[in-house]
User: Fold this.
Amino acid sequence: MRGQGGGPPVPGRARLSPLQEVERVFREEYGRVVASLVRRFGDIDVAEEAAGEALLVALEKWPAEGVPPNPGAWLTTTAGNKAIDRLRREAKGQDKHRQAMQMYDDELPEPTGIVTDDRLRLIFTCCHPALAPEARVALTLRLLGGLTVAEIAEAFFVPETTMAQRITRAKKKIKVARIPYRVPAPADLTERLAAVLAVVYLVFNEGYLSTSGEAPIREELTGEAIRLGRVLRELLPDLPEVAGLLALMLLTEARRSARVAAGELVPLHEQDRGGWDRRLIDEGHALVRECLETNRPGQYQLLAAINAVHTDAPTAADTDWAQVATLYTQLYAVAPTPVVALNRAVAVAELDGPGVALAEVDRLPELQPSLTSYHAWHATRADLLRRLGRSAEARAAYDAAIAATANEAERAYLSRRRGTLAT
Amino acid sequence: MTQYLLSVHMSEGDEVPPPEELDRMYKAVDDFNEKVRSAGAWVFAGGLEPIEAATTVDGTRSEPIVTDGPFAESKEYLGGFWVIEAPDLDAALTWAKEGSAACAGKVEVRPFQAEPA
Assistant:
């Protein structure tokens, strides 16, 4: 296990076998090592092969000699030497002259960016808009997260060969179309950063929304997303949306263990708040406070602020719903989606009663007809109708919600709620 | 430097814009071409006559066959293109965005294969 989002130490971590320990360190350092090699050799395949060879050397040496004090630097140096050896061999007979020359030149001309961390450049390459969204996610997990192709394939429920092709195609496109390896110019940074944050949040949600306990790799995705969020935060400390996304993920992750009980989804107002991870919540709250001070709100910051309000309430009854509704109104101003409107209606129900909220919810499909196939829309209606004592309509809405979701924990919860309706 | 093909695709049945809009478009494309030239990114460019003017030749058999019409039946066809030189895809995409706005059409960006060393 790795990338636990800064939570408490993973039990058993100290008891890893020497080989497991090498693999853990390798994974943790992988993004840094590969990013540095990509900059130096200008080629992702060369970088990955060299990193792989360095792992073989580490597996041979570290269990006997111990992990070196700076394993990342050790791996980068070893991999760099391996890459040079390989390029020298290939340069003989082939015209790999230019590449072979580059290996002597560590100081390649670099476009100036606001930060010069290699991982930052690499994540902008992986999340380039010229790549298909699913390829961006896969490449980011492979190159920066150090996940194997098999693991990524398992996490996204696609055959390994499909995932391998997806990654190979994307790398080939980066190479032949010359997708640059650099932090975008300030003029493009906001737009390009949005694509990076979207990839990280997608990775997080893939892991979070599927919490069923049967696919450990998927759960590991949330940890990986938080780790990437921390890297971005470290590299781009002045951009509030970066802090906002990290805060959002931390405050969501903090509730993970309370979110499912006995295979059934536990909604926010029924969760055991004592089971929430206070450390993650405190860290998330600090980031949200920092965003408020910066006062340049954006989508992720507002979502984080909403989560901060929820995690600030000792009990569900203490929730500051006026604040939640205000934040959703602000969020709707920057992200006018029917889903945001739906969530605002939930807050309105707590403030102005289920009748007012139901009227709002029933109007939403006019904005987006596809909402009627979205389980949360039906589930929200069902709950409001139940509170209004309109049992028959509530039952039909629960049926529609259950039919619209494939998530077992969610279905179990909705079925139980349906069972509590008066006949 | 890499060369990129920036191609503009027309759809069958695309309406011809009114003259004043057409004039504006020609002017915008001329200005864009001038900008590409003065930036040193220009390789070659041109607009093509409508697809009705196309002839297809198949010289893969012993007897070459000449037929009227396009290579493949399609609702879209190449209307014109630029070949530009750019240091990387981001630079090529920047040109493509401007070119697309100038000619009022979507632009596909494709790198040329590297010259064999």
